[in-house]
Write a structure and sequence with these properties.
Layout: H1 5-11, H2 21-31, H3 38-46, E1 55-56, E2 62-64, H4 72-75, E3 83-84, E4 86-88, E5 91-93, E6 97-98, H5 99-107, E7 117-121, H6 127-134, E8 139-143, H7 147-159, E9 165-168, E10 181-187, H8 196-206, E11 207-219, E12 227-228, E13 243-244, H9 246-256, E14 259-268, H10 285-288, E15 305-312
Parallel strand pairs: 2-4, 3-6, 7-8, 7-10, 8-9, 10-11
Antiparallel strand pairs: 1-2, 4-5, 11-15, 12-13, 14-15
């Protein structure tokens, strides 16, 4: 499995993260696990011979690799590609999610990232990490335990100009209370957590005093007392535990210790935003909705609606 930890430690020795290096190295080591395709993927990464390392992170399509080089064969070894869009050399990777749409909804409501140090929880293959650098962030650390996503990130980095985006194969509960990030992002994570308040308290421990939290999650219509706990699956997902109203979520953030809590965007996920493509050929949103009534999931719950909330840690 590709290891980011050495590069990360070497390049963050001058930051507030340095005192936590030993804890982070131990966490990565203790969580390391082999994937059945690890040897195949390692060989695929080793086969990449980039004559020129180039990248562009300030456009909706993240671009890496020499546009005259063809990386399609190696990209095809790392299916499915879920977060993008990506232009890798000559190849356009039409990912399952139009993650640029989410970024456009987020960036207009948050504090400037210029010169900031940011953390992205559950960052997938790192698409949003690169967009954070494109928006001016000085350092963008992501964590995600999914081994495939870590390999995809390593592939993209191997073709990119040197930069300060990093991805460690960890969950938020594995992080120490770092307490120094200017902005912390938790996008599409809360509803997977059995204990949402604990997750919010974790997030608070990562933000510096006066820093900002950007939270995106599934929500349901209702008042401060409304929450949906699926009987079993939600939109065919077995790991959805908690879908609150925005009013309840704002209250939860305040109880967790955040201030200046605001819901800044509510958006029903469209079939054009999450869909199957040649780069992600499994079932996608259309298969998760009632075939007759697209306002409902196949289980009869309201179709996925997502909210973005911003909040601040007290100074």
């Amino acid at each position: 499995m590709p290891s980011e930890i050495d590069r990360f430690i070497a390049e963050t020795s001058d930051t507030f993260i340095a005192p936590f290096h030993d804890q982070l190295r131990t966490a990565v080591s203790s969580e390391a696990r082999l994937h059945g395709r690890a040897k195949e993927w390692d060989a695929a990464l080793a086969s990449i011979r980039a004559t020129t390392r180039v990248s562009q992170f300030d456009s909706d399509t993240v671009r890496v690799g020499d546009p005259n080089e063809d990386f399609e064969e190696v990209l095809s070894m790392f299916l499915p590609w879920r977060k993008g869009p990506l232009q890798v050399g000559k190849t356009f990777v039409d990912t399952e999610w139009r993650s640029d749409w989410k970024w456009q909804r987020i960036i207009r409501h948050i504090e400037s990232l210029e010169g900031k140090q940011v953390l992205d929880i559950g960052c997938g293959n790192g698409y949003h990490l690169f967009r954070m650098l494109g928006a001016g962030a000085d350092l963008a650390l992501g964590i995600d335990p999914t081994i495939l996503f870590n390999y995809q990130f390593s592939l993209l980095q191997k073709l990119s100009a040197p930069n300060r985006a990093y991805l460690l194969p960890l969950r938020s509960e594995h992080l120490p209370p770092l307490g120094g990030f200017d902005t912390v992002f938790s996008l599409g994570v809360l509803y997977h957590r059995r204990s949402p308040i604990d997750h919010l308290k974790e997030l608070l421990s990562f933000v510096k005093p006066g820093g900002e939290l950007v939270l995106e999650t599934l929500i349901i219509e209702g008042d401060q007392n409304t929450v949906l706990i699926p009987e079993d699956r939600y939109a065919k997902m077995a790991n959805v535990w908690f879908i609150p109203s925005t009013s309840m979520l704002e209250l939860m953030l305040r109880r967790a210790g955040f201030i200046d809590v605001k819901t800044v965007d509510v958006n029903v996920t469209r079939l054009e935003e999450q869909r199957a493509t040649r780069w992600m050929q499994f079932q996608s949103l259309e298969d998760y909705l009632d075939p007759v009534d697209k306002t409902k999931t196949v289980e009869g719950y309201p179709a996925p609606t997502r909210a973005i909330l911003v909040a601040r840690k007290p100074s």
